[in-house]
Every structure is written in structure tokens, then in C-alpha cells.
Amino acid sequence: MPATIKQLHYICAVADSGSIMGASDALRIAQSSITAAIEAVEHDLGARVFDRRRGRGARLTPQGERFMQAARRLLSAERRYQQELSALADQHSELRIGCFEPFASLFVVEVLSRLRAKLPNLKVSLVEGDQPRLKRFLERGELDLLLAYDLGPDFEAGVTEITPSPPHALVSAAGPFAARDSVSIAELAAHPFVLLSQPLTVTYLLTLLGASGLPPVIGFRSRSYDSVLRAVAAGFGNSVLNLRPPKPLDVETGCLRLPLTDDLPAPMLIAVDNYGDQKPRVVRAFMDELHAYLTPPGATGRLPGRDAPRAADLERRLS
């Protein structure tokens, strides 16, 4: 049986130290393991590698010298292989992420920027879209990871919960709720509404408004998260959004985010991939960075709001 890499390491240590005892001390393993490695290699080679005599240590034989040259070349190639493999794992050439359109400006670009500080050679392909479209891309293997809310049909791929996203109100800084600390859905429904009209999201938002018993008056609708912020600031109405960025966005000047007084379902931000337990290192690193960015400092265990009602319960609660 050909010598293993481990056996070659043992024999090189004997040659370097000049004795089995010296190799045992250097490698911190039993002398019997080293002796067994030498005997296995000598049996396979059909010749003695070391001349071992009491009081003289272990000296390479002529055949052992030739064997050691080949062994060192093999170990050097093995080290280069491990280094290149590690570099490939740590500096993945491209991370393919799909995200629900509002997430890019809310947090994804910031999280990727933090990740690139740790992996300087990281390249990113970011696809923004609605959840049904992103799901198709993931199923075709065109994405490593997608970020979405747990709304709509279930994913067949692996799902990791990131953080709940309780709804909150977005109001104009010049509007009637500007001086308030909080507001209710019924109060918002009595005024024109600015609607983020993404698939699945629009149904969720209209259902929330319908819980007030008042038909919503849509004063402005757009698929663009930034356009919704600007429309609220411009006085077209108020809105309800979910995930709050850790710091205000540049485009939300003229807007205020207020808590809602209602006990409402909270969609869960999820990460979905097809890798299962074998996630590439760069995917795991991104998810770790995402958790760190969205989890409040000092939070432990379940994230704040994790016990809030889930969006999937909304239809049952309103029926």
C-alpha cells in the first residue's frame, strides 16, 4: 500500500531530528506510531530507509536518501495544494445573491461591503427582483443564495430564518402624525396611502389595511422602495413598511418611521439556498455578516420580535 501523507510527515521528522525519539517529541505523538510508519514504508519499498542502531539514532540509508527526496517533493506539492485550496475557499471569485428589490438599498450592499473588507477578492453578482422570479433563478441554479420574506409559496430549498420584520408606519415629517410617538392602522387607513406594490407584499399590505374596516384610499403606488419613501416625504400619503434599516437612508429625508400600536403579523426575513449543510464558506460568511448587521448589539437567543405573530397567520386571524 502506498505511503500516506501522514506517514511521510512522520518519516521526514525522523530524518530531520535524527531519531525516533526526537521526531516523537517534535510531533507530540507516540514513538510506536512513528515506528509503524517506518516499517510500513520499508515493507512497501522493499528496502531499509533508516539504519537504526542503539546509541546512534536513525540515519538515512542510500535508498532512504532517494526515498526522502521524492517524499519531500510530494509533501511540498501537498502544501501548495492545500494553500491554493484554502485561497479558493476564502476568496471565492463570485457570490451570486438574489434579493427582494427593497433589500439592496436597505442592507444588502452594506453587508457585502463589510464582507469584502474581510475577503478583498470577493466579486458579487446581485439580482434584484420579486420573490417568484428569484425562486425560479434559485431552482435553475443561477443563485447561491436568495433573501426574501416568508410570504407566498414555500421554498423547496433550505431556509434559514434571519430576523422578524414587524410592520411600522412611514409618515411625512410635515404631516398630521409627525408629532406622534406611534399610530394605528385605523388612523393610517383614514388618510391617503402610499403602496409598495410588489407581488405578495401588496396583498400583505392591503390585508393589513383591511383589518381596520376602512377601505384604503391609494394615493400613490410604486414597485420602487425609494419612490415610496419620496412619495411619503412629498405628501402623497402615509405607508406601512417592514424591515427597518439600522440607520436612516439618504432618501428618507422628510419621513418619519413610527411604531404601530396594533398587534400585527411580522414577516420573517429568510435566506434560502440549495446547499444544505454543505454551504460554501463565502455563503456562510455572508450569512454571519448579515446576522451581525441586523441583530441589535447585545441581543442573545431569539431576536427581538421573534415571538410576534407571523404573516402566515394573518388570513386565519382576520377570517
From TrEMBL:
<protein>
    <submittedName>
        <fullName>DNA-binding transcriptional regulator, LysR family</fullName>
    </submittedName>
</protein>
<dbReference type="InterPro" id="IPR000847">
    <property type="entry name" value="LysR_HTH_N"/>
</dbReference>
<dbReference type="InterPro" id="IPR036390">
    <property type="entry name" value="WH_DNA-bd_sf"/>
</dbReference>
<comment type="similarity">
    <text>Belongs to the LysR transcriptional regulatory family.</text>
</comment>
<dbReference type="GO" id="GO:0003700">
    <property type="term" value="F:DNA-binding transcription factor activity"/>
</dbReference>
<dbReference type="GO" id="GO:0032993">
    <property type="term" value="C:protein-DNA complex"/>
</dbReference>
<dbReference type="Pfam" id="PF00126">
    <property type="entry name" value="HTH_1"/>
</dbReference>
<feature type="domain" description="HTH lysR-type">
    <location>
        <begin position="1"/>
        <end position="61"/>
    </location>
</feature>
<keyword id="KW-0238">DNA-binding</keyword>
<dbReference type="Pfam" id="PF03466">
    <property type="entry name" value="LysR_substrate"/>
</dbReference>
<feature type="compositionally biased region" description="Basic and acidic residues">
    <location>
        <begin position="304"/>
        <end position="319"/>
    </location>
</feature>
<keyword id="KW-0804">Transcription</keyword>
<keyword id="KW-0805">Transcription regulation</keyword>
<dbReference type="InterPro" id="IPR036388">
    <property type="entry name" value="WH-like_DNA-bd_sf"/>
</dbReference>
<dbReference type="GO" id="GO:0003677">
    <property type="term" value="F:DNA binding"/>
</dbReference>
<feature type="region of interest" description="Disordered">
    <location>
        <begin position="297"/>
        <end position="319"/>
    </location>
</feature>
<dbReference type="InterPro" id="IPR005119">
    <property type="entry name" value="LysR_subst-bd"/>
</dbReference>
